[in-house]
Design brief:
alpha+beta; single chain
Length: about 400
């Protein structure tokens, strides 16, 4: 399998005349990474199939019975709560005694204090009850694509959860405050954060290596209700903090200079870990897809995930890509086609054809196939069947089982 430096040499050999110079190094590296990214999106490749799991987070009512609320105010104080320590996320639903409204947590301003997304409409009280409902939104594994299968084993055997679109979620009228065993999930949104700041805060960055002093991290998000960004310089293992207070973060991007250490990006004095950038600048930004599960989990459940990974960039000369050695030729052909195409050289078409031919060959061996696919079977006059697949009956298609051949 070619390492990054060997891929560069092969692309240079096919794309530029001067193979020994450094004039085209940046362009060659860029073309290779673009080729890997494009190739990874062509199909659901088996080498990129991964599996992971996470545990759900159930309801929370620490300190219940000592809740201070004020009529027409969004501020709530809960004696005995430890919101920050217990990693309570903004956006979770919260029920408060004295009101029938459905509230969401807008900010968490301390261990015992939070604000609601709308003013409390009950009577002022210092001894109300409350309950934060189970967490419904989770991060999929880092660099997971949108091709995901989720399941759990809470019924005693593997149960694949049903994927539904957001329109279906709202159209079905799924109750947002019901807690039970999750059976549905939807994917909505992707950004660079593990979590959002619990309240507006400056952003801090720190590396695990003292050598990382020339790299920068740029934060894109919302400052004072307007889109904004800030670039912060790394200072090795010493924390560097920006000056702007972000209420929300959309993207966290590093420059192209390779890092030696792992970079942690945090807010609110380090209590909120927004992102962890991998060693080596293998990507300029990480990507997390968000998944909502319904009903909300009534207990701590292990949730299992099959997904296809978005490959990391290659940065260092000894880096290897994640597709495997059989994909080397396709990467080289496509990278050469990209470089020749950018300079309007007619050979670009030749190399693109070579790439497509290689792609066909790869699909025969590495294209991930669906484990089973229901197919309508031909009806038999002598031996009619009541199913379209051994695991799927015609009755499951609706219309009281009137689809398919008649069974006597």
């Amino acid at each position: 399998m070619f390492v990054f430096s060997e891929l560069q040499n092969e692309v240079k050999r096919g794309a530029v005349r001067d193979k020994s110079g450094t004039e085209f190094d940046t362009a060659v590296k860029s073309a290779i990474n673009r080729a890997i990214n494009r190739l990874s999106r062509e199909c659901r490749w088996r080498p990129l199939r991964k599996e992971s799991s996470f545990n759900t987070v159930t309801s929370y009512s620490e300190g219940s019975g000592a809740v201070s609320v004020t009529e027409d105010s969004a501020n709530v104080t809960v004696t005995g709560a430890t919101f920050v320590t217990d990693d309570i996320k903004v956006g979770r639903r919260i029920n408060i005694g004295g009101s029938s409204k459905n509230y969401r947590i807008s900010t968490i301003t301390g261990e015992t204090t939070l604000t609601l997304n709308q003013a409390y409409d009950g009577d002022t009280d210092t001894a109300e009850t409350y309950s934060i409902l189970a967490q419904g939104r989770y991060n999929l594994p880092i660099q997971a694509s949108h091709h995901v299968i989720m399941w759990h084993e809470q019924y005693g055997n593997p149960h694949q959860m049903n994927y539904i679109t957001s329109q279906q979620s709202f159209g079905y009228g799924l109750e947002e405050d019901t807690e039970s065993i999750p059976t549905y999930y939807r994917m909505w949104g992707a950004d660079s954060t593990l979590m959002q700041p619990r309240q507006a805060s400056t952003i801090s960055i720190v590396s695990s290596s003292a050598s990382d002093t020339t790299q920068t991290i740029t934060i894109f998000g919302t400052v004072s209700n307007y889109p904004d960004y800030e670039t912060i310089n790394l200072n090795g293992t010493t924390t560097a903090t920006g000056s702007k207070s972000f209420s929300a973060v959309d993207r966290i991007v590093s420059n192209s200079t390779a890092r030696v250490g792992r970079v942690t990006v945090s807010a609110n004095s380090g209590n909120d870990t927004l992102a962890v950038l991998p060693v080596g600048a293998t990507t300029r930004e990480v990507k997390y897809y968000k998944v909502d599960i319904r009903p909300l989990p009534s207990a701590v459940f292990p949730m299992f995930v099959y997904y296809y990974k978005i490959p990391y960039m290659l940065v260092n000369d000894q880096d290897v890509h994640e597709l495997g050695s059989d994909f080397d030729n396709a990467i080289i052909f496509l990278a050469i086609a990209i470089m020749r195409g950018e300079t309007s050289q007619k050979e670009s078409t030749t190399y693109l054809g070579m790439y497509k031919d290689e792609l066909k060959s790869l699909k025969k061996f590495y294209l991930d196939k669906i484990d089973w696919l229901p197919r309508l079977k031909e009806s038999s006059l002598t031996s009619p069947v009541s199913y379209l697949h051994p695991a799927v009956s015609y009755a499951q298609m609706g219309n009281n089982g009137m689809f398919g051949p008649t069974v006597y």
